[in-house]
Amino acid sequence: MVTFLIAARTAGTTAPPSRMLPLALLVLLAMVLPSVGGWGPREGMTAWVFGAAGLGAAQGVATAVVYGVMVLVASLPGAAFLVAGWFRRTRARGRPEPPLPWRVPAGVRPDGAPHA
Predict the structure, then answer these.
(1) Which residues in the chain come in under a pLDDT of 50?
(2) Is the pTM of this model over 0.85?
(3) Which residues contact 23 (CB under 8 A, 6 or more apart)?
């Protein structure tokens, strides 16, 4: 909810937080609908709720877009770690697996002497 309030202020909404919190709650409920990253239902609900509250549908869409961008940017560090892990795994597939210290190579006795 705080992120939504920050997005609303960034988009230029001047309504007090006491008026914005109920609107934010309705918009957050719309975000649980299945969609691609929340895009679509969030903008539609925000336009409708802001229009019904007398703040203007365009202001609602602007707030929803700012919110979406803020959340996307906040998730980028996690995405960077996922991509780095994926890259590390794909590079490691081409290398042979290093021998484990407790495995005895074929043709060698446990004491290290070759079989006769």
Answers:
(1) none
(2) no
(3) 46, 49, 50, 53, 55
Closest CA to 4 of 15, 75, 21: 21
Residues facing residue 108 across a β-bridge = 114
Q: In angstroms, what CA-CA distances link 85 with 75, 81, 88, 93?
A: 16, 6, 5, 13
Q: Which residue, among 49, 54, 56, has the nearest Cα to 22 in the 3D structure? A: 49
Give me the phi and psi of 36, to 5 degrees please: -90, 100
Sign of CA dihedral 27, 32, 35, 38: positive
Phi and psi, residue 108, nearest 5°: -125, 135
Beta bridge partners of residue 114, listed in sequence order: 108
C-alpha 5/C-alpha 84 separation (Å) is 33
CA-CA distance, 64 to 72, in Å (whole number)? 12
